Amino acid sequence: MHYTRRAMKSFWIHSAPGQTRLEAREIERPAPGPGQVLVRVRAAGLNRGEFIPTLGLHAKAPAPKPAGGEAAGEVAGLGAGVSGFAPGERVMGRAAGAFAEYALMDAREAIAIPARLGWEQAAAVPLVFMVVHDMLIGQGRLRPGEWLLVTGVSSGVGVGALQAGKALGAKVIGTSGSARKLERLKPLGLDLALETRKGDFCDAVMSATGGKGANLVINTVGGTMFPECVRALAFEGRLATVGYLDGVMKSEIDLDALHAKRLVLFGVSNKLRNAEQRAATVRGFVADLLPAIADGRITPLIDRVFEFGELPAAKAYMESDAQVGKIVVRLP
Length: 332
Hints:
The protein is an alpha/beta fold. The protein folds into 2 domains: 7-56 and 63-125 and 300-330, Quinone Oxidoreductase, Chain A, domain 1; 129-267, Alpha-Beta Complex (Quinone Oxidoreductase, Chain A, domain 1). It is built from 10 helices and 16 strands. It has helices at residues 119-123, 126-138, 156-167, 179-185, 202-208, 226-231, 255-260, 275-288, 290-294, 311-319; strands at 7-16, 19-28, 36-45, 65-66, 70-78, 90-94, 102-106, 111-112, 147-151, 171-176, 192-195, 214-219, 233-241, 264-267, 302-307, 326-330. The strands form 3 sheets. Strands 3, 5, 6, 7, 8, 15 and 16 form a 7-stranded mixed β-sheet that branches. Strands 11-10-9-12-13-14 form a 6-stranded parallel β-sheet, with helices on both faces. It has a 3-stranded antiparallel β-sheet with strand order 2-1-4, with no helix packed on it. Helix 3 (156-167) links the parallel strand 9 and strand 10. The protein is globular and about 60 Å long.
């Protein structure tokens, strides 16, 4: 296949202690290397973790990098050794530098978009539901009838966990500081809504679960919630740490609870995983959760769609903490 190299629009992210900012650039369109798919991006999802500023742990700020981590679009080119995709086919997946007119995907992570999904919905799937699969199924071993507790349930990952948890047959408790957000999530099957921004929910969880506690807890908030998450766990409960929006990176661990209740504490991150490990999660998602998305049991919840040139405004909206579900930008 022949490729024409020419300029394209993209956004880059600058990170420094206390802040991140976006810069529009015109760069050369990438060409797919071996094992890669070139995608004409039609929509891309925002992920809060990308915009969390450095915490002052490094002597100098990291170099600017292409922004964006997930996209939906059309196959525009195939690298050497790639089969199973055709030009023009609709795909979604993890894509470094997704806030651009064209982006590259590892062919092992490119997923055919179900017919019922539009571009914006498809762009809201990859990162959220890969994380959700990792923490609910891959490591969390959530079973039908178990109790799932999600702190910060109105976030993109939180909503995805709620939806997937219900599809898997679990009962779901969610916390949020906003009654409005919790009300919006009740139609998605939220069994118990706890309006709080504090680590004060253990008693309510124990009451709802007949004194047993939650079988799986998803902590999207960080260290301020960690002790209460441990307290709220059931015997042989599992606790996933997936975010630290509060910036609190350390917390005490109740070793007596860890020991007596035979707890499992695990992290959910792709930072140190290799390509094959990430691809394994994609295969698990395709087998376990994609059918529910394809047939309508799970519909990605989009809070707001911005135009591509409005990405800085979309970032500001995310940082205002107003959304329920995902924020997406679309390209013309």
